Amino acid sequence: MKITRWMLLATIIFTLFILTAFSKSEKRIETAAPSSNSPFAMAVTNEGKPIDGGVLRVAMVKDEPFQGIFSWELYEDGYDADLMSWASNSLFETDENFMITNEGIASLYVDQKNNKVTVTIREGVKWSDGQPLKIEDVILPYHIIGHKDYPGVRYNSEFQNIIGAKEYHEGKAKTISGIRKVDDFTIEISFKQLSPSIFYGGDGLWTYAAPSHQIGNIPVDQLLQSDAVRKNPVTLGAFKVEKIVPGESVQYVKNEHYWKGEPKLDGVLVKVVPSSSVSVAIGTGKYDIIQHFNATKMPEIEGYDNITILGRPELFYSYLGFKVGKYDYQKNTVVTDLDGSKMGDVNLRKAMAYALDIEQVSEVLYNGLRVRANSLIPPVFESFYDKSLKGYVYDPEKAKEILDKAGYKDVDGDGFREDPKGKKLEIKLASMSGDSVQEEITAYYLQNWRDVGLNVTLSTGRLIEFNSFYDMVKADHPEIDVFMGAWGTGTNPSPSGLYGASDQYNFSRYTSDLLEKTIQNIDSPSAFDKYYRANQFKIFQKHIEEVATTVPMQFRYEIYPINKRVKNYSIDYKNPTELHEIELMAKEPFKSKKKK
Amino acid sequence: MGKTIIRRFIIMIPQLFVLSILVFFLAKFMPGDPFTGLITPQTDPARLEELSEKAGLNDPWPIQYVRWIGNALHGEFGISYTFKRDVGDLIGERALNTFWLSLLSVTLLYAIAIPLGILAGRYQNSRLDKTIILYSFITYAIPTFVLALLFLFLFGYKLEWFPTSGSVDIEYSSGTLQYYWSKFHHILLPAITYAILGTTGIIQFLRSEIIDAKGMDYVRTARSKGIPIKKVYTKHIFRNSLLPIAAFLGFTITGLLGGSIFIETIFGFPGMGQLFVSSIASRDYSVITALVMLYGFLTLLGSLLSDIIMSIVDPRIRIE
User: Fold this and answer.
1) B213 is a domain residue
2) According to the model, what pLDDT value does residue A491 have?
3) How far apart are CA A15 and CA B134, in angstroms?
4) Domain residues for B148?
5) Per-chain mean pLDDT for chain A
6) CB of B133 within 8 Å of any CB in chain A?
7) What ipTM is given for this predicted complex?
8) Record: contact A280-B130, CB cut-off 8 A
9) Given a cut of 60, is residue B267 above it in pLDDT?
10) Contacts of A468 in chain B (CB under 8 A)
11) Helix runs in chain B, H state only
12) What structural domains does chain A harbor?
């Protein structure tokens, strides 16, 4: 077939059209550097007169359907928690330090001496179906989680801290003996040992109620399949679930029984929106609030004039871990072996940390939505976070100096340093695949290390898929010397579980007497004194910085684009928006007038 | 022929059995397990161990296999580890979505491709033919996600002719007319995208078949008998040229449940393609194995259907 000239031309024009249409969404390299403090506002108030009622439209950015488990006891996925939060069953409210206050439905009294806790609920609180909240509704979740048929992860060593939980789980008792109903509004819970975690909802305390009149008679192994969990959960929050399209969207209407007062909105509509088109959806005014917006898409929405971008530090840190030992799965203990490990020399670890240009990666590839971390405690935890720590700020000269001093020299002239004994040194890095820019980042870090003369290569030769990554890291695979991981800390920043001598998740396999003692002190009875606890936290952070077995890499911001139709909204941990007070100022969300 | 069909069904049993072994053990060979994704600082390793013990994941693989195949023969594929739902229900829900989307896609696909293919073949080397060929090359060259995004931006967000994600508007309750219209409205844009992208093969097949047929003796005979050219095309050439397309019809029918990961991801449409890919990522063994068995069965069925259809369309072909 002969291709005529005009056909060729048409093809080229069409291709160019496609290319230009999409080049806009390309990543921009030159983004402004963020200031050292949070570059984002955490709250917004828009001027204007609110309308009566209205439906708030929320986009949840997600590329797969949501799981749809509407039960605080059973859900596993963070997206389900976000969906439930509109119709929360939460009993307690927390302050800026994430500690339980007495402002919520229930109040907490801790009897530290006797390891007892009293939970008292307000009178007159009603479920979304109009039934009164009973003390049985507070007891029920314990009997769900502790049940032998309970399929979730929340029956754990922490939960076993409740006296009688284990016996109940093993079927030796009909109820949990440590939970005692005092009167119609009060229960008393006895624990084996209380720690400051109790104020964060830890130690086994459960902070949600479950509607016993709705699910009390459903056998625990059938809860997950029941309509009460899947279709029409009865709740306590400002809104109640009206309808669910599985995996796609949830419609809420206001809960006229809400204990803080009737919500001003008529309802809320939450929809799953694919990440590929969410930026356009924001610009064309489809949604009021966007949850789980991906940092790498930030440049796509910066030019829009119909939104305010709110941001807050996340309860998260990423880290560089060095393998300096093994985990003994028979004895359940970490075995640190500094002398026998390739990464055993603290100078080598420090040099590797100094050599990484994390600042550049945060700015360029994450658009300033990540910043270099200096500690294993995210700064949100103001009273525990040690801001005086320097961290390993990018300094390749210092890295070289440390290596030179410690005897890592290039003996055979191949451009890479040998170890102090003159043997070839090849360091294996395990890096997880997933994030779209992960490949670029890993390549850049390898280059950083090459620049200071270290021969670092990828374990298995490429990025490792999530499941294999943790399999290999858990098993102390010999192919891994260094690995890059991340933790979401939750609201209780205690390092126990991650850095203790018996913790499987202590992936770098480092422990020392000082470290172990400090971790135990943090959760000890003396730590009820908050100055003592804060001080122990500082010792922990300092010790880890000195030994550099786990080097903090980045903290992360999460951002929420908010349409200007929303009267006021706040994501500040200190002063979050009360859901029943949200107001709208127009019938539809505003569209962006500016083309970016 | 009835005998042959029964025999083919009987042969399927060992084929599916071999498939089941392959699938099951390959799934187990993947690193990690359904509980790997649950690791957070708060999860207790001992609890994860207890859960995987309860789920029987610690038993030797052959024992797990026998248990699984035993249940599968009773039609029970277990509970999805991720969605915590009965696998049959879960797949059923997604399959229904995918089925309607694919049915509309394939209908549109044939509705676009067959006339274009015929026209291109009939008016070979004309300007129309060249335009059609250009069109089919362009649609062949565009990656799925590019066209899908382009259409979504243009028709979904800019012109607002179509909904932009999901399979149905939540406002309407099931059973009403608006509900079904909303469902149709939601699958229309993805279906059009899919149809436009898939036309090339059929257009090219039809075109070359028609060009070949034009020079055939039976065409000359028909023309010399004085049959009008229009009738020769619709009666004689068209039927013969459809043969290669009919050969794939069986696969097309059973392929309706395959789903497309790109289309589903971009249009936020909960379908089978996504379920399959995400179940692999999360090591949702019960869903993976059930889906592969289903696809395997459908492929075997598709090839049988194709043979049957061929023997009906073209009596010269006999399946023995």
Assistant:
1) yes
2) 83
3) 13
4) 88-281
5) 88
6) yes
7) 0.81
8) no
9) yes
10) 31-32
11) 2-29, 45-54, 61-73, 87-122, 127-141, 144-151, 177-214, 217-224, 229-231, 238-241, 243-254, 261-266, 272-281, 285-313
12) 43-63+238-306+564-581 (3.40.190.10), 88-226 (3.90.76.10), 318-556 (3.10.105.10)
